[in-house]
């Protein structure tokens, strides 16, 4: 377990240094190149679906195999080298500090009353269009992103890391990256990205629900409204197009007594999402800070729970 502790603490302290090539970026490039190659053989929607399944299998399988080989070789050379290498890979997989940094860029821009800069930094961390968003919509989008990524970027990777080490954690990130790149329900990806989207939904089924539980526990220790978090998770967890994202969003909305969801624009298409939570408080910049605190609290709770479960 020492390698997991090394990676976890390193992520909390440093996040992703910009000067180190990130493996997720490499996975993204591989997805793009493989997609471009496979599309040469597409003649109809059935071909798209079959090749999309193949893409998911190849990317996730290759990611697991390569990571496993690196860790195995390092441990073969020296067990302590193996711990160091796997710890470093785990550090690269987790994203709590990076999520903090990137969301605070949006927050800092809002605090300077620079709406254009806030939109720019928000566009780096969300899939929706940001050019038209006002201050409240920017805050909402940032809080939603922090909540969702508390699951996708922290709890879910930790869950799979504790089960299967860095190889399984990196394979999960490959699946999650596939979903973020090709898992859209638009004309281009409705068939080709079907497998990636469904596989990501499957992998996140348990972690998303655990994240909501960890957020409720974390909210209790932060003196936020954990009782409301329980109520909103029960009531509004289905108010999201994703079968999983509604859980962390509902927990965050309930704990902060705010309302999330509503209309967003993706690739020029307006998408209405049912609201999550009760608008007891109007969205303010402070809610971004509080959502980050909930993310960190749920991360610590999750790490401790997984440690005692799998140690």
Describe what is shown at a glance:
This protein is 72% helix and 5% strand. The chain has helices at 2-14, 23-38, 45-77, 79-93, 96-111, 115-123, 135-182, 194-221, 226-236, 246-256, 286-310, and strands spanning 260-266, 269-276.
What does this entry look like structurally?
The protein is mostly helical and 311 residues long. It has eleven helices and two strands. It has a two-stranded antiparallel ribbon with strand order 1-2. Strand 1 and strand 2 (269-276) form a beta hairpin. Helix 3 (45-77) packs across helix 7 and helix 5 packs antiparallel against helix 11 (286-310).
Biggest sheet, open or closed, and with what strands and sense? 2 strands, antiparallel
Low-confidence stretches: none
Task: Quote the average pLDDT.
Answer: 93
How widely separated are the two ends?
Answer: 7 Å
The portion of residues assigned to helices is over 70%
Key words describing this protein structure:
311 residues, mainly alpha, two-stranded antiparallel sheet, 11 helices, globular
């Amino acid at each position: 377990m020492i390698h997991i502790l090394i990676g976890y603490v390193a992520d909390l302290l440093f996040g992703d240094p910009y000067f180190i090539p990130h493996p997720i970026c490499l996975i993204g490039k591989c997805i793009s190149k493989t997609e471009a190659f496979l599309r040469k053989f597409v003649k109809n929607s059935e071909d798209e679906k079959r090749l999309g399944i193949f893409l998911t299998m190849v990317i996730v399988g290759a990611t697991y195999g390569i990571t496993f080989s690196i860790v195995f070789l390092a441990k073969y050379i020296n067990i302590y080298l193996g711990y160091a290498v796997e710890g470093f890979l785990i550090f690269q997989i987790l994203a709590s500090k990076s999520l903090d940094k990137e969301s605070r860029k949006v927050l800092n821009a809002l605090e300077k009353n620079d709406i254009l800069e806030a939109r720019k930094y928000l566009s780096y961390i969300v899939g929706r269009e940001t050019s038209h968003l006002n201050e409240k919509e920017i805050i909402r989008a940032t809080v939603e992103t922090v909540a969702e990524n508390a699951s996708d970027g922290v709890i879910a990777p930790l869950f799979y890391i504790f089960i299967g080490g860095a190889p399984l954690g990196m394979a999960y990130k490959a699946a999650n990256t596939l979903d973020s790149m090709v898992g859209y329900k638009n004309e281009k990806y409705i068939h080709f990205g079907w497998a990636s989207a469904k596989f990501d939904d499957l992998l996140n089924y348990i972690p998303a629900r655990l994240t909501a539980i960890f957020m409720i526990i974390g909210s209790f220790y932060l003196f936020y409204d954990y009782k409301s978090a329980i109520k909103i998770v029960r009531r509004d967890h289905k108010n999201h197009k994703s079968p999983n994202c509604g859980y962390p969003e509902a927990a965050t909305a309930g704990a902060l007594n705010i309302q999330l969801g509503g209309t967003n624009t993706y690739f020029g298409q307006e998408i209405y999402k049912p609201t999550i939570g009760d608008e007891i408080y109007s969205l303010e910049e402070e809610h971004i800070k509080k959502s980050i605190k909930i993310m960190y609290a749920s991360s610590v709770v999750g790490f401790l729970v997984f440690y005692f479960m799998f140690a």
